[in-house]
Amino acid sequence: MALGRVKKTMAVAVAVVVVLAVHFTRTMALDPTVIVIGAGMSGISAAKMLSDAGIKNLLILEATDRIGGRIHKTNFSGLSVEMGANWVEGVNGPQVNPIWPMVNKLKLKTFFSNYDNLSSNTYQQTGGLYKESFAKAAFDMADKLSEFSTNVSTSLTASRLEDISILASQRLMNMVPSTPIEMALDYYNYDYEFAEPPRVTSLQNTEPLPTFTNFGEDVYFVADPRGYESVVYDIAKQFLATNSAGKITDQRLKLNKVVMEIRYSPSGVIVKTEDGSIYRGGYAMVSASVGVLQTNLINFQPDLPRWKILAIYQFDMAIYTKIFLKFPYKFWPTGNGTEFFLYAHETRGYYPIWQQLERAYPGSNALLVTVTDDESRRIEQQPDSETKAEIMEVLRSMFGKNIPDATDILIPRWWSNRFYKGTFSNWPIGVSRYEYDQIRAPVGRVYFTGEHTSEHYNGYVHGAYLAGIDSANMMIGCIKKKICKFQIMPKGT
Ligand SMILES: Cc1cc2nc3c(=O)[nH]c(=O)nc-3n(C[C@H](O)[C@H](O)[C@H](O)COP(=O)(O)OP(=O)(O)OC[C@H]3O[C@@H](n4cnc5c(N)ncnc54)[C@H](O)[C@@H]3O)c2cc1C
Ligand SMILES: *[C@@H]1O[C@H](CO)[C@@H](O)[C@H](O)[C@H]1NC(C)=O
Ligand SMILES: *[C@@H]1O[C@H](CO)[C@@H](O)[C@H](O)[C@H]1NC(C)=O
Ligand SMILES: *[C@@H]1O[C@H](CO)[C@@H](O)[C@H](O)[C@H]1NC(C)=O
Ligand SMILES: *[C@@H]1O[C@H](CO)[C@@H](O)[C@H](O)[C@H]1NC(C)=O
Fold first, then answer.
1. Is the CB of 334 under 6 A from ligand 5?
2. pLDDT band at 487 (very low <50, low <70, confident <90, very high)
3. pTM of the prediction?
4. What is the pLDDT of residues 184-206, one digit of tens each?
5. Treating both helix axes as pointing N-terminal to C-terminal, what angle do 461-481 and 433-440 enclose, rounded to 10 degrees?
6. Is 242 in the pocket of ligand 2 (CB under 6 A)?
7. Where are the domains of the chain?
8. At the top level of CATH, which class does the domain 32-69+229-317+431-481 belong to?
9. 135 alpha carbon – ligand 4 mean position (Å)
10. Residue nearest to atom 3 of ligand 4 (CA)
11. 336 CA distance to ligand 4 centroid (A)?
């Protein structure tokens, strides 16, 4: 009897699947629903591109209760600070960074970050500034080393040699950074940008860096009560319905929807969320970070092909932690040429890069210190009070015993967060351009976007924006022109 019931249930299930498949082929051909997973910069950019192309049958599923993803402001002791992206990077160059006009259209407050005077603002581990002439010499060496690495990279590409790490190129010049000040400058040149050390970072794909060569070397710090995220909202409001108060009310955007399964076949996709909802569509556009794709949060049915899994797992999700601190009063130098300062500790990456926020947030008495990688993991796993105690010890060695304790501290935890698993992708050694393209390549009706799929600008806001456009265009080509084959040869199969 029990057996009979199972058989009957299965028969019903089969019938349902058949009906669904017929339904799919009939409705999908003309007006397929595209399910966009994630409403960060890339997901919103892709959705807008699809909408502009006449594909309005969209459904955007976002795990959190907001859009913007890794661009996110918060209220820290009354200041609106950015826990994620903070700078428009790559400005005043030969091409226009597409984010820059967006920021200016909204009149967001931005501040040019001037690092020129860092050599006068580099502190020794045991206290006090380095003598300026000594520090200057170290800076000159670091600049030479970076120029040498760019030369090595260019020659690698010209002679079609295999990629090497930035560290290996430094050894070729016999100048591996080892003293505290050398390590601090090395950290400033590389880890502060890529959030991982030169030991693991690809030389060929970062030196020179397309963001700086194409868009310019200047960077602008966004500090506005409306937040950097307002650029994402502005794009969203160009194609999603809003109410009279300007709030997005479009039913096609669904917040608090955690996608847990994507079932895909030649006829369509079925997406399941943790709250038990099931959405059917013609195509899926997945914009979750490469860190998320390296976990089992989203279960693909059938499993992704081997070449795709390898491409996803060969890439790196890096971690960059911005710690904000508030004090009763300022005890650090202020005025021109003092915004940024370095702390050179014998442990590489121990609270090395500092920014005093007087210019961006006048009267705030706030500091920002940046750590990355292993230090970020360590700090995410300990109580804030311990981190604060470590930081106070560092500050006391820089500025003396009598400085006041911080009254507030903010430590974002992007790595522990299952919807991010880090902050941005970094290009590891040994991943070729070709293997990188496989990260973006669609698998049947499942398409991929996100900063990690950007052709030239992985790791950046502009990368996420441009990736959204590119991935949407691939999908539009398939839906409208039936160009759906992407020649990506399997690796390691
Ligand atoms: C600390 C930090 C500092 C940075 N600094 C800068 C900077 O100064 N300048 C710069 O240009 N860039 C910076 N970046 C990088 C930049 O923020 C990112 O490259 C960009 O915002 C990524 O956008 P995205 O759409 O690719 O990904 P995300 O913003 O991660 O968007 C993906 C969305 O998918 C959602 N999601 C994940 N899993 C699921 C699921 N299972 N179901 C449904 N939804 C899901 C997430 O909640 C998220 O909203 C920084 C990033 C961080 C975190
Ligand atoms: C930010 O938080 C402070 C308390 O720390 C509060 O007084 C203030 O109203 C908040 N501001 C906003 C814009 O939410
Ligand atoms: C890098 O290459 C340029 C041009 O060939 C050369 O002038 C310069 O000296 C090189 N720099 C280093 C540090 O090797
Ligand atoms: C700081 O620099 C700005 C612009 O470079 C200049 O206008 C201003 O006078 C300077 N202030 C001081 C105190 O030197
Ligand atoms: C550089 O920094 C030092 C130390 O903080 C400061 O005294 C000096 O005025 C700054 N120089 C410039 C040009 O801004």
1. no
2. low
3. 0.93
4. 999 999 999 999 999 999 999 99
5. 70
6. no
7. 1-30, 32-69+229-317+431-481
8. alpha beta
9. 24
10. 336
11. 6
